[in-house]
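User: I'll paste a sequence; please echo it back and then give the predicted structure.

Assistant: Echoing your sequence first, then the prediction.
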Amino acid sequence: MESATATAPATGSIAHPDGERLMAPPDREARLVGWLCAGTGLALFAVMGLLGLTMRLTQAEVLGVSDEWFYRIMTLHGSGMLAGILLALMGGIWYVLKSVAELSFTRMLVSYAAMVLGAVVVLVSVVFGGFGAGWTFLSPLPFLPAEAWDTWAAAAYFIGLMLVGVSFLVFCIDVLTTLTRTYGGLSGALGVRFLRDRDDNPPPPQVIAATAVTAQGTLASAVGSTILIALLGKSIDSGVELDALWAKNLTYFFGHSYANLIIYLGAGMIYVLLPRYAGRQWKTTKPLAYGWLATLLLVTTAYGHHLYMDFVQPGAASVIATVSSSAAALPVAVVTVYTGVMLVWGSRYRWTLASVLIYLGFAGWTIGGVGAVIDSLIPINFRFHNTLWVPAHFHTYLMLGAVFWVMAFLVHMLERAAGRPASERVAKASVGAMVLGGYGLVGAWYASGALGVPRRYSVQPVDTEVYSAVASACVALFAVGFLLVLFEVGRLALAARGGAGRGSGAAAPPPIAGAAAAAGPAPARPALTSPLQIGTVVAIAVAASFALLPGISAATEGNVQMHHLAHAVQYLYGIALGIAFGSTPSIFRRLAPRWTGAAIAAGIIGSTAMLLAMVPAIYEPLQDDDVLHSLYHVGVVALGVITGFGAALLGPTTGKLLAVLSVGMGLMYAAGVTGG
């Protein structure tokens, strides 16, 4: 590793001599969010890692954990890892975006609180309630507990994951709203105008990445909320029935999308951090912009490779999933990794603990992605489906990719605050142990999966325990390296607290020529920006009430799905009225943008309450009283008005997206929920 010269400034021993000019110094809010999210996320990762080691030692027949507790641990491990890494990288990309967009500190704290609360609720449901259906909560398993857990435990688990989803949704809506306002709408923030040669100053790469991730994250959160509320409804009313194929599609769309978006959040963060060590700007190029546009489509359709074994799944969906899963590796992963390696090549890269972890994260993402593509090929998936090959590939890109980047982010902030790099000896020892241990673990899984050893089994097939034993030893080695990193983190924190460095607050030199600068935020605009748009939406509301609703209502007798569809149309009617009213210039000027937080809350609460109101146990007792029954339907319309009004205040991009997805949640619910 390079050492600083005696005359170098405090931060010069950390970054490349030209690197300081490529990143504005983070303000206090950015630093607080970074410390909070990265610290909490890594703490969750450490605890969940210990649970993972416990499972491997059980499968190696070293520990005697009961089957009941094994599946509890497996459920908590998966859920906690997802929440922890997601939270850490939400903080990471927020940190690098704060200097180019006026993000809301308050809303980020609300998102953080919802994530932590969700993790606590999941912990209670598993440890005290005994819930052990796995983090994928596939229906009907949560309702077949074999006396291992009570109904309240399953309901609590669904609520906990819903809070995780709400956390990410608040984050996505706030970031998407801010970036589209700052960079000229969705086409500007995604670089579409740049691709059409209509923008000479395109948004920086982290903005394009964050825009794509938050748009996709809003969709994934809406889908996840729909299936989780449907499962919660079944917990309330045991007579509710869920279509199994519908439930599995929504569950894997939610889970697969979140797993992919975690690594994409990390990529957006790396666009800013890596240039500080390479001294070269990560520029916005057309291949990069095209890559993120393609990713919007490919991530949406790739999840279907989890359903190859479901013979009732339409064949076309499996073909699309195969193509999307293979193609998804090209647009972002290949472009980002290749560009990142080229930035390092010949750059006099500053090798510190943080920068080494950034570089190694590319390897984890690449190797894990190749493993995923191999598994997504139908003939191979026939052999590898639900074997240990699956945890092998996603642990490669999450543990050896995303988690390496989280650690790099935390060390980067501390090195900057302390004014010195981490110890070279500690860096070499810790990274060496984590690389050997991490790849030893996933290597044992890849080998086991190729042999057909199943995943999610507390007891492994005879004579395969040795793979679990080897994997356990490798996890222990990884843990040693991880503890060394934490040791050095503590030393850097003490140095920063003692004032050894001034890097966290020092002013950076002016940006180099051509460096992307933050655009000033444009004036707030409503979701519907013209009288024609408002009139069109009002016409849709009238059509829904006079053309669609009577026919659907007539078909509801004895048909629960049609009853749900009628509620969805009433909700659509309310949303159309709410978004049209909220978009009128006089109303919008009085409320926006001061009420953006309330608008986000209105959208989330309105759509959630609408789906819960569809639980038969809630509305059936009202049907015998004409007044109460009428008030119930008025309430559904009112929830739509609240949602639409909130959407109107969020701007043309986020507002319309939220309104459409809220209506879509009602339609999705009607398609898959019966009984009661």
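The chain is about 70% helix and 0% strand. Residues 603 and 643 are 4 Å apart (CA to CA).
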